[in-house]
Design brief:
Blueprint lengths: L1 E10 L2 E11 L4 E5 L6 H9 L5 E8 L2 E2 L5 H6 L2 E4 L6 E5 H15 L7 H14 L10 E2 L5 H15 L3 E5 L7 H14 L5 E5 L5 H4 L4 E6 L2 E6 L2 H9 L6
Parallel strand pairs: 3-10, 3-11, 6-9, 9-10
Antiparallel strand pairs: 1-2, 1-4, 4-5, 7-8, 11-12
Bound molecules: adenosine-5'-triphosphate.
Length: 244
């Protein structure tokens, strides 16, 4: 599904990713861990198409060169980024934002768009599954949401859009234990043979709930070690020092 070869990314003359290699197959869950400033968010930004980076190397998404696709095309083709810091967007109603996002993807795929009633049914069902108070959906997008509500809202978007590749950038930070479980259940419910996940986290505890197939350690812009979920336990006890 996703093959990354020798990926390098610079911003403002600073080289952040320095030759990163990674392969994600359909249905796999990959976790990326690494010290602060190692390039984890930069990787998620580059994959989702954020502007401002000078990027070289190869990123193949199915049979396409991902780096040539515009940010909207990436979303239409099933890439979803759950932000580390979801933005507050005053004046934009959360429900309308969700419906517009979903219908834009459906339109790009040539599928029938949902009308207001169909959408409401879907959003009610998904919000119920995530134990997300529906009332919040009639508010402006993320405005005044608590940290945990913002993160849950990202997961709600993800479950409504049903992406092929979901990138979660520190979605677990700021969540209380109950919210962490709910968010993890949301991710686990979306796991299927066709959908893959790239989960960036600092904490092994998230991986108690979402069992990754692979764990990678990103240090100084490169993946320096990969392993199974036991690698996360090892990092928790030993830290990154022995790997850098
Ligand atoms: N626009 C920018 N200009 C200069 N340096 C930048 C810019 N954006 C990111 N960096 C630097 O690139 C490095 C990697 O940043 P990135 O946010 O990808 O790290 P991270 O691994 O996600 O860190 P954290 O775990 O703290 O979230 C950091 O040293 C950061 O200061």
């Amino acid at each position: 599904m996703l093959t990354i070869k020798d990926l390098k990314a610079n911003i403002d003359n600073k080289e952040i990713l320095k030759g990163l290699n990674l392969e994600i197959k359909p249905g796999e869950v990959h976790a990326i861990m690494g010290p602060n400033g190692s390039g984890k968010s930069t990787l998620s930004n580059v994959l989702s198409g954020k502007k401002g980076y000078t990027v070289t190397g190869e990123v193949k998404y199915f049979n396409e060169n991902l780096l040539e696709l515009e940010i909207e095309e990436r979303a239409h083709k099933g890439i979803f980024l759950a932000f580390q810091y979801p933005l507050e967007i005053p004046g934009v109603n959360t429900n309308i934002f969700l419906k517009t996002s979903l219908n834009a993807i459906k339109k790009a795929k040539g599928e029938k768009e949902l009308d207001a009633i169909e959408f409401l049914k879907l959003v009610k069902q998904k919000a119920g599954e995530l134990k997300f108070d529906e009332k919040i959906l009639s508010r402006q997008l993320n405005v005044g949401f608590s940290g945990g509500e913002k993160k849950k809202n990202e997961i709600l978007q993800m479950s409504i859009l049903n992406p092929k590749l979901s990138i979660l950038d520190e979605t677990d930070s700021g969540l209380d234990i109950d919210a962490l479980k709910i968010v993890s259940e949301g991710v686990n419910a979306l796991r299927s043979k066709d959908s893959s996940f790239l989960i960036i986290t600092h904490y092994q505890r998230l991986l108690d709930y979402i069992k990754p197939d692979f764990v990678h350690v990103l240090i100084n812009g490169q993946i320096v070690k990969s392993g199974g979920s036991e690698l996360a336990m090892e990092l928790e006890s030993k830290g990154y020092e022995t790997l850098s």
